[in-house]
Amino acid sequence: MEHDILKAIAELQKNMESRFEKVEHRFDGIDERLQNHDDQFTEIRTQLNEHNEQFTGIRTQLKEHDEQFTGILTQLKEKFTGVHTQLDRMEHERQAEIMSMLKHISQKQDVNNQNNDYLLHKNQEHDKEIYHLKKHIQS
Question: Which of 13, 83, 104, 137 has the fewest CB atoms inside 10 Å of its own CB, making it the most exposed?
Fold first, then answer.
């Protein structure tokens, strides 16, 4: 009987060792899968860091471009303001020239009108004189 008990204990121990080996094999498989996942996450983390560095570079370039565009816009505004000011000045000069020319033309026209008025007046006087002479001759 003792022999049967020892044999049963040995059989139980053998079954337990077999189960422990199966469990340990499963744990090894789980551990291997976890390690694979960990490696994948590490690779993903590395790629994300690389992308983050690329995005940081792109952001830096965009800021530089934005600063350049702001500078260009500022220069264009300054140049436009200068051109606008120059055009306004030129327009005022032209208007002054035109007004001066119109004033000169008006003065000449006034002189011509005065001369015409004088000639008309003289003509009327001559007509009166002729009329009076005709009347005097007829009388």
Answer: 137
- Distance between CA 30 and CA 22 in Å, rounded? 12
pLDDT at position 7 is 87
Can you read off the two tokens belonging to residue 116? 């015409």
* pLDDT value for 87: 95
CA angle 69, 72, 78 (to 5 degrees): 140
Instruction: Establish how many alpha carbons lie within 13 A of residue 131's alpha carbon, considering only the half-sphere containing its beta carbon.
Output: 6
> Distance (Å, rounded) from C-alpha 126 to C-alpha 35?
131
Terminal CA-CA length for the chain: 195
User: Token pair for residue 29?
Assistant: 């498989």
Residue 139 has pLDDT above 80, yes or no: no
DSSP per residue, 34-79: HHHHHHHHHHHHHHHHHHHHHHHHHHHHHHHHHHHHHHHHHHHHHH
